[in-house]
Amino acid sequence: MASVVQWIQGTRPRTLPNSIAPVIVGAAAAHHIDEFNALYTVLALVVSVALQIGVNYANDYSDGIRGTDDNRVGPFRLTGSGAAEPTKVRLAAFISLGVGALAGIALVALSGYWWLLGLGAVCIAGAWFYTGGKRPYGYAGLGEIAVFLFFGPAAVLGTLYVQSGEITGIGIGSSIAMGAISAAVLVANNLRDIPTDAVSGKRTLAVVLGDKDTRRLYLALVAVPFLIALGMTVRVPYALLGFLAAPVLLPAVRRVAAGRGGRDLIPVLQFTGIAMLAWAVLVSAGLFLD
Questions:
Q1: How many Cα atoms are found within 13 Å in the side-chain-facing hemisphere of 163?
Q2: CATH code of the domain covering residue 66
Q3: Phi and psi (nearest 5°) for 133?
Q4: Are the C-beta atoms of residues 179 and 157 closer than 8 Å to each other?
Q5: What does the DSSP assignment read for 67-128?
Q6: H or E segment at 179?
Q7: Which chain regions cross the lipid bilayer (predicted)?
Q8: Distance between the two ends of the chain, CA-based, in angstroms?
């Protein structure tokens, strides 16, 4: 039987900045046009984090029953390690996705933007079919595109729109920044897993591109938020605060650029996630100060 600590590990805490950072930026973009709503922001955060945990448990379950995680070098997995029964991991995924759905329904009901239920349904389906179902899109090299869309435009612009009823240039730029660095987290994860994924038949984008080009893709993606911050200074000079997140990212960039592999790449996920959260907080502070 898996311990409480192992179940917490199953949520993949290092990836949770992916779901927190976009909501922070989206809320700040709403504040920038005097439309910030604290309750809506909290509900959006519950939706985002619950779906993130749901997709992590779903990924653990689906990869585990397929045997993809049998010989992994990355962090602990509940199903692949045999610590938890697959059905219990699947139930945890359904509960997490259910919590996200309920929070989303509450948010839509309060805001009155009922069409957003469709977006929520797409997000839940995307969470499950990333590695679930007969033809998971995560096994077809489409995971990074999905992460970019769900944790970029969907999360940032969704948070902004539900509070303001409009989309702004600041919101669009922030959504691209969040989508890019969120995708970089997955690229780093898949870079580490190239050897085992290739053997198990998991054809991620990293497997398709190969080691060298995957490293180049990671470095390009993590540069995007800083280019966006620079562009945002035309309207929000305080957006330059985002560059203070660069030192946090530097250890991850060094490991990837130096050709590190295996377990040496595990910290890259953590550094990238923290840098993402730092960028979101710093740029949001700039939006609040403007």
A1: 30
A2: 1.10.600
A3: 80, 180
A4: no
A5: TTTTT--SS--HHHHTSS-HHHHHHHHHHHHHHHHHHHHHHHHHH--TTHHHHHHHHHHHHH
A6: helix 169-192
A7: 38-58, 89-107, 113-130, 137-161, 167-188, 217-234, 269-289
A8: 52
Per-position pLDDT tens, the chain of length 290: 778 898 998 898 888 988 999 999 999 999 999 999 999 999 999 999 999 999 999 988 988 887 766 666 666 788 888 888 999 999 999 999 999 999 999 999 999 999 999 999 999 999 889 888 888 888 888 989 999 999 999 999 999 999 999 999 999 999 999 999 999 999 998 998 888 888 877 788 999 999 999 999 999 999 999 999 999 999 999 999 999 999 999 999 999 999 998 888 889 988 999 999 999 999 999 999 98
Cα 225 to chain centroid distance, Å, stands at 14
Domain that holds residue 12: 4-289
What 8-state DSSP symbol labels residue 258?
T
- Residues 178, 191, 203, 87: what is their CA dihedral angle, to the nearest 10 degrees? -80
- The residues, any chain, with a CB within 8 Å of residue 26's CB and separated by 6 or more, are 44, 155, 156, 157, 158, 159, 160, 163, 171, 174, 175
Instruction: Look up residue 93 and give its amino acid.
Output: A
Write phi, then psi, for 245 (nearest 5 degrees): -80, -15
Structural domains counted in the chain: 1
| Residue position matching structure tokens 């969704």 | 158
CA separation for the pair 283, 250 (Å, rounded):
18
How far is 163 from 152, CA to CA, in rounded Å?
17
- H helix intervals, 11-69: 17-32, 38-66
DSSP 210: -
Contacts of 133 (CB under 8 A, 6+ apart): none
